Amino acid sequence: MIKPRKTFFMAVDGVAPRAKMNQQRGRRFRSAKEALALEKQALSRGEVLPTEARFDSNCISPGTSFMANLQEQLEQFVAMKISSDPLWQEVKVYLSGHQTPGEGEHKIMDFIRTERSKPGYDPNTRHCLYGLDADLIMLGTCSHEPHFALLREEIVYGKKQNQKRLNVPEEITFHLLHLSLLREYLSYEFQAVKDSLPFEFSLESLVDDWVLMCFLVGNDFLPHLPNLHIAHNALPILYQAYIEVLPTLGGYINEQGTLNLERFEKFLKRLSQFDYEKFTDVQADQKFLESKRTAATAPNGVVSQDSQDKAARDKERDPDEQRKVLLSPGLLEKFSHLDIPDYESDEESEGTLEMEFRQHKRDYYTTKLEYKDVNKEVMQEQAHGYVRAIQWNLHYYYNGVQSWNWYYPHHYSPYISDIKDFQSIDMSFELGKPFLPFQQLMSILPAASKGLVPKAYQALMEGEESPVLDYYPQDFTTDLNGKQQEWEAVVLIPFIDEDRLLPVMQELDSKLTDEERERNTHGGHLLFTYSHEPVTSLKCKNKGLLPNIEVNHARVEVLDKNIFRLPKEEIKKGLLDGVKTDIYFAGFPTFRHLPHTAKLERASVKVFQSLSKNESVLLTLTETPDKTLKEVADELLGKSVYVNWPHLLEALVVAVTSRDERYICGPKGRITLDKQWSLHSVPYALQSLVKDITEHCPEFEQFKTVEELFPVGKTCFMLGHPHYGCQGEVVDPKPSTKQGRIVVRLNIPPEPNLEGVNLSQVHYMSSHQLAQWLGVNGLFVSRITGTVYVQMNSREADAPSLVNVGLNLKFNKSGEEVPGYSKRANETWFYSNKCHNVLQEYLTKFASFVEKIQPFMDRDRISVEDLYYKGEGKEEVREVAKWIKEQECAQLPRVKSGSESLDEGVVKAIEDTVDKLRAGEQQRSTFLDVQPKSLFRAALHCGWMQPDPSATFRLFDRVVNVRENIAVPLGLRGTVTGICKVEEGEPKLCEVVFDQSFVGGLTLRCSPNRGYKLSTLSLVNLSHGVRTQRGQQLYQVPARRQEQHAQSSPAPEPPIDSSSGSTDFASLWLGLQKASSLPQTANTQPAPLLPTYESSLHQGTPVSIEELFKGG
Known about the structure:
alpha+beta, 5-stranded antiparallel sheet, RNA binding, Pacman protein, putative, 5_3_exoribonuclease, globular
């Protein structure tokens, strides 16, 4: 997917700033509480919990033994890739592990800031950052690197979220979020303010202010402002206030990471109107609901109109009476510091509401923030603390950590209308130093995860005499605070006071082991580079994960942990000189290639399987060509254009499709870009075509020399004959004796003969046949192989508690099956021997249960009351469900019906055949001079292009991986054991069992680490090469034999009677007969050095008629 060309920076979270620890602490306490609740639920249902300790996800924290092992494996993995993968050898690889302080994404941004501040930095460098966190969007935009993309996994909702899938890149849908387009969308979002500004409009300053506004809805370091939730239109509210107030500010608010306090206060004053408007809306809703409740509880729905009660209510509701109470001098003085924002209203009618709003805010501060007395000093502390929090955030995103020890000391933020009078506050921060790993663990982990900290500290988390026991509450409350999801709730636990915790820990440091002391340290970044000469070999400490690296080419340099932390004065900010935002960088789109307009409108745009509810930015192309169809055809027919704007793809008019690339050798050794077009045509609007791109990125080259494309020593693969698919190495890209050819050294391993693999182990039968074998009726088999739900609670229950006692081997609605167990063909389900064995065990083990459910198999849902009298003995249902989950078939991922696959027995036979061959393997090599078009180099082929477009794939085909930088090693051979069904137009996905195991390999009905799913875009089909070569030999035999016969005998060959209609068959048969009469010699000697390409074309083994028509 993403292939770095210069630098690959892999960062793992280290010790975080204190401001982040509070959020980490809340998350880990919540996850521990949820895990305990799930265990209690399981026990209440009568489930038996596993005896082994459950995996505690809180171990993914710096300083744990898990993270120490992960660091060792990452170092081993990087060294292995650099030693074996050519793409890794051409880049600098940085590994910043858990012992290097800082969050992973912020360590990467420190590196980017350092690089772009160096002289000679390329301002058009392209970046790709992987991660799902939303703050990556903020980090990318505030870097002001316009060529920036985020790689994110597809967000799946609904039932698909729980479907099993292999955790490999080929099985995951990824998206690229282009920040270049986001920047342009932001300019459209705020285009209404462009013409009204009394100062110069700056997109870069607008982006900075947008980042600031996003902080106001909350992030990992400070809470959101009251009632400002993204799900409740917080961003449009912020945008509208900004558009209204910006022309009056005299400039922008966020000045490259420094808050302009005067302008920020003016913005908040305008935004504070939202506080009061929101309160009035809520009050109106409450009064409406109160009136409805009053009417509902009145006798016969009629509200009493008793004159005495009515007079009392009227007096109670009289505004003058309420004002006498609420606007008394004592209350006015008490609430005077709780500000009411400016608004247009009738003073007489709104006086009471104002006081209610002030009372509401007072209640907020006393209950949520737990102040005993809300006075002016408290409100000033709140305002100043929040503004300092905003400034710390800006520093963190623009300049890196400016204080390791600062944090926002509240779970809630103040009301917007109370954030005022802060223009004179001190905005400086003390840098401090990061916590040690164990200090962070004790700050963020609950007592339930005490096993993750050293034993020396565990008593502090649960001992009754612990001086910090209050930091580890066993029970606590959470507050949704306006949010919708439980994971968004505020976790109400005390903040850590380091002046209390650290001295207590220091007293116990002497009890740490040597290994624990080593873990409790900070470390630097690691820089890996390729060394042509082998360096010290590496032994893997954890056996079974990664292999030992006997020949290690990875040179490692330890860099200081602060090497990428620049003083903020040295950081270059904003767009750099020389940056190009309007030229064509492949893979980094822009709207600038076509004239268009933009507007905000509610249009129900579909995003992540749901329609948008608010305004979207809609773009309209403004160019409307006034041409006839004939004129357009004359102009574009047969020419290439760019489609899919703004994600431009080159396409050919008439067959308008996505373009893939490959380089071919033209006349006089000139290398040109050959464009391969898709087989499917797609319609595009004429206005959306970009007819030409006048300026490409500097690296774009239409022509290259053969020496640049095939340097000496580079790996390539043969796509011609002989030796189709063999891996080779370039020896001479431009031999003096062979113009237009390349000399390569090919490795020719022996190939296994799979014709003897026994297919008799594959047996499928219909449900009727399976039922006969088992001695049950066909309905039972049909139902039990799918889903059979038993309702464990009462039939009348609002929320039924369902337990599935079916085997889940077929899925009619989604059209999926379980490979090796079920198969669907022509709308009929078939079942294998393995399915028979599982069902046989089911019937034997739970005979009494099967007898109970058989009479109810025609129902969608079986009530437990129908199976057990008064529910007694219903634990048997859960026992059956538990047994089903333990079966092998329950662990296998589903595949689409219509996929082809070989069963385990066949795959095992293939493995045995290959292993026997490898045991006596004698690989030979040969030198050939070939045309460049017959060689494949993965680096020269971009996009969705199959190495050999003519190749077709079948089960049992022998293949070789020709793609670099994927889990499967380059050049590893294997056998196709499955062909997955894919969407129309998508490349085929093959399940392959490889000839040997490898790191990252899967278990796909094969031995561990030998299987993988690969697209045909990554494979050269060796069997296809054999098939095509065999066909060439057969059709060339008659012509060659006729030439030889003509030279040796003056008598011509008798003509073949064409009247029979079988001329081609007769010619083929004649060739086969003559070929079989010639003496055959086995070619066991290595090929001579540099044989000619023409002579090698005619080498081959004659075939028999049985071989020719085998399988026909």
